[in-house]
Design brief:
This is DUF4625 domain-containing protein. With 140 residues, this protein is mainly beta. The protein is 10% helix and 48% strand. The chain has a single domain, classed as Immunoglobulins (Immunoglobulin-like). The strands form two sheets. Strands 1, 2, 3, 5, 7 and 9 form a six-stranded antiparallel beta sheet that branches. Strand 2 (24-25) and strand 3 (32-37) form a beta hairpin. The N and C termini lie far apart (42 Å). 25% of the residues are buried.
């Protein structure tokens, strides 16, 4: 019984953990990077009410030898849901690698779970993409 509780606690902790993309840049080396996105998962999507705006945090996690600019873009978004980034790139010399993701659900956006995909394209090397889920709920 005790083992079951430990396994459940570990699963819950994992569900609230980071949501990171595969490596971009030069994967498998310290010259790589990942995109960290909100932790909405299939079991815990981020809620957005119809007609409302929500702001989420993201960031670029650089390997110690990754020294390139990264262009950010919204690779895919659901119909009637507007997604904007506050930065279109993170410069190599910037100490602050954080950005915000503004999600606006139209008043008639489809209720349910949707996936948003963000891509980071470095000035050299492989791009990477990460996704997070939102759940559009009725605005009562």
């Amino acid at each position: 019984m005790r083992v079951w509780h430990i396994a459940t606690a570990a699963l819950v902790a994992f569900s609230f953990g980071c949501n990171k993309s595969p490596e971009g840049g030069t994967p498998g080396t310290s010259a790589s990077f990942k995109i960290s996105l909100p932790s909405g998962t299939s079991t815990l999507p981020k809620d957005v009410k119809q007609g409302n705006t929500e702001v989420y945090d993201g960031s670029i996690d650089r390997g110690s030898d990754f020294k390139k600019d990264v262009k950010l873009s919204v690779a895919s978004k659901p119909d009637k849901i507007d997604v904007k980034l506050n930065k279109d790139s993170i410069k190599a010399g910037e100490g602050d690698t954080k950005f915000t993701i503004t999600v606006v659900a139209a008043k008639d956006a489809a209720i349910g779970e949707h996936e948003i995909k963000i891509t980071g394209t470095p000035d050299g090397g492989s791009p990477t993409s990460g996704t997070f889920k939102i759940k559009v709920i009725e605005n009562k």
